[in-house]
Design goal:
By secondary structure, this protein is α+β, with helices and mostly antiparallel strands. Helices cover about 30% and strands about 35% of the residues. It is globular.
Length: about 200
Amino acid sequence: MTSEHERIRSFIAIELPGEIKSDLAELGNRLMDARQPFVKWVDFENVHLTLKFLGNIAVNQITEITGAMREAVRGVSPFRLEILGLGAFPRMEQPRVIWVGISGETDKLLELQRTMDSKLVRLGFARENQSFVPHLTLARVRDNASLSDRNGLGRLLTSTKFESKGYITVNSINLMKSQLTPDGPIYSRLFAVTLQG
């Protein structure tokens, strides 16, 4: 039984089709062959496009959050996104986060994210202070990686070609629960809001 005082670690995301998860896993396996112990890879079944990280929310906030999500999608019809290629933050030569980019109808995605962010600010959530860069995180480089480790990884990333023929049809946004475990996070969908346009 869930107590209304229970806190849930949560975020709002677009879930991915299996075909894209398979392509990402194949890319990850190619890159993992280089055996860098200083890189922490995500579970490719867990990869998603995060629109907003909410942090720990109270159970009794779910109704108002999903209400804000409904308001944000009002008038937005389903749209299509594609996978763009491999990248890294802050830059390829010195990677800290490895990701693949998103292309396609990104204008709709950016507008949806902006609208949702402003609806959630009214509920007391902090506004995103960085501009939203749509991406799918694949791995994080540990802080103890040396400069030469990062440089070597940067060269590998720069020389790796990646294309996915799959695409993402965005017809809903989802409030997700993230349960942290020693084996990594377990994600489950709490609520889906459908785009109807």
